[in-house]
Specification:
Number of strands: 7
Helix content: 55-70%
Radius of gyration: 19 Å
Strand order of the largest sheet: 3-2-1-4-5-6-7
Number of helices: 10
Order of helices and strands: EHEHEHEHEHEHHHEHH
Mean pLDDT: 93
Distance between the termini: 48 Å
């Protein structure tokens, strides 16, 4: 039976929340890392342990590390993340930096803090990336950059830690029915309000088309978070885990097409798919 402590970041909702519950079902001591007091209390009411942790705040990472102590850590699931959507031509650079800080730099900060405990247990690191880390879409350049970066960092880290007995596994979901799409649209509204009128003139149709696609993923076509949680559970329990797990039909299809089609053909297909 699976056992040991696994820390799951971004556990307040969506994939992280469902993953923490699923890992507890499997027999792990699942610890959900969240930013807010009320989310920590809710997890505890559900029978989980919880710590407060903001991946962009070194002091909260250190406090979470101290709260868990020096006991070996069977797993770390780096799931926390946000989605910034806007045309790269007009995207404020501070927004771009924040996207990288949360989705890439923050993942490494948490990993560095807990690596001694992971090494003690010969544990596993599971980085939740995205199909957006393999195939980029318009208006999601900042998000794609963060996930492409996480893919590369994961490969390097896996090869660095191989001799230490710590495995690094990447999860690559396609569209998932989570609040990240609603949150991303609200964040996009904030950013678009800051942009000059020219941005609407040049990109308005694309922005509206992408927004419709994200709403459709959240309400209709996306897979349930439980599917991703089960892939994470497999990554943590399999005797021979894969380096990457593609999750969802759309993710698998996109990777297959990108592998065989010229980039210009993919550009046209993506354009048509968006509308």
């Amino acid at each position: 039976m699976p056992s040991g402590t696994v820390l799951v970041t971004g556990a307040s909702s969506g994939i992280g929340h469902v993953t923490a519950l699923h890992l507890a079902e499997l027999g792990f001591d699942a610890v959900g890392a969240v930013r807010k007091d009320e989310d920590a209390e809710r997890l505890r009411a559900e029978g989980l342990r919880a710590v407060q942790l903001d991946v962009t705040d070194a002091s909260t990472i250190a406090a979470a590390r101290e709260a868990l102590g020096d006991a070996p850590l069977a797993g770390l699931v780096n799931n926390a993340g946000i989605g910034v959507a806007a045309p790269l031509e007009f995207l404020p650079l501070d927004r771009f930096r924040h996207q990288l800080e949360v989705n890439l730099v923050g993942q490494l900060a948490v990993t560095q803090a807990f690596l001694p405990s992971l090494r003690a247990a010969r544990g596993r690191i599971v980085n939740v990336s995205s199909i957006g880390g393999r195939v980029a879409l318009p208006l999601l350049g900042a998000y794609n950059a963060s996930k492409f970066g996480l893919e590369g960092a994961s490969d390097s880290l896996r090869r660095e830690l191989r001799a230490h007995g710590v495995d690094v596994i990447v999860i690559e979901p396609g569209g998932v029915k989570t609040r990240i799409w609603d949150t991303s649209n609200r964040l996009a509204d904030e950013i678009l309000a800051e942009l000059p009128p020219e941005a609407e003139r040049l990109y308005g149709r694309t922005i509206e088309a992408v927004r419709k696609q994200t709403v459709r993923i959240e309400t209709e076509s996306g897979i349930e978070p439980r599917v991703v949680a089960e892939a994470i559970g497999e990554a943590l329990t399999s005797s021979r885990p894969r380096a990457r797990y593609l999750v969802g039909r759309d993710a698998k299809l996109r990777v297959r097409l990108a592998a065989v089609l010229p980039a210009r053909v993919m550009d046209r297909l993506i354009g048509r798919a968006i509308g």
